[in-house]
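Let us work through a complete example step by step.
Step 1: write down the sequence.
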Amino acid sequence: MKGFFKKVLRIHLGDRSYREEEIPEEVYANYLGGKGLGTYLLLRDNPPGIDPLSPQNLLIFTLGPITDTAIWGSSRYGVFTKSPLTGLYAESYAGGKAPEAMSRAGYDAVILEGRAPSPLLLEVSDKGVLFHGAEDLWGLDAYEAEVRALERVESAERKGALVIGPAGERLVRFAVIANDRGRQAGRTGVGAVMGSKGVKGIVFHGSRRREIAKPSLVGDFVKELRERGRQDRGALAYKRYGTPQLVAIMNQVKGFPSRYWHQGMVQGWERISAEALLEECRVRAKACPRCFMACAKVSEVLGGRHKGLKIEGPEYETIYAFGGLCLITDIKEIIYLNDICDRL
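Step 2: predict the structure and record it as tokens.
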């Protein structure tokens, strides 16, 4: 079966050791993709009844068979563990540039086991694993930690870093894992699990590439989808407005999460809409690798007490979480809160 490296990397943090595990081809056939593989490994290997913040809880990073190929929308990674927020199965996903660097290390999954006795920065490549002390990185916000982690790892190859901020270090049960200055695996508290293991960050690099079964067919598919996307009204709307365009739509149909789920719209929603974002900020479109949608927005506040603040976002979910649920009707204040959360 093409598209897979057919091996998993297991890193034991307690004694700074690692080993490779070969995965049978039938597992890939039955549990196709990174989500299937991550779920399979978690259910197979995680002991029942454990505390999510204990050393026994595994933290699993996975990639799919099209990661780092030309296929649109393929630059994603998944994280699987037992959630400290719910005590149940946890999955979380993020995009950006980091997934391609992760793929070039040559593994379909990386599993963190145990707990480091002191803070670590892991370097994972197609040549193995290096364990770097990270005491000086502990306490840094996610933005600064990512910069410092990438500087510490010396490699001419493309690098990508996954890090946690102070919330993950302090085991906040909804903490995130961050990459690419503004992308997060943000659901189910995976950052707290990484913090419980004493891992501040992981830097990936390598030169491995996935083997494609039918390159010409993939090329035709990519070209066809690109041509369709150039004229698609939905794709063009996402490039112009991004996910904030949903603020107007959901308020108009009374489906906008508001007043902590007691209402379906918020008075003054126009001041937190996509149009308000374009009016109050200098906004440019930004795309993940292998994506023509460019739905992400880099926004710089033009005036007021947050003038000059620049973030990637805000996304629709951030706007309804702070705007709708908390009744904040100023897009600039939502951007300010967005920045704080990204750093933590």
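Step 3: interpret the result. The mean pLDDT is 96.
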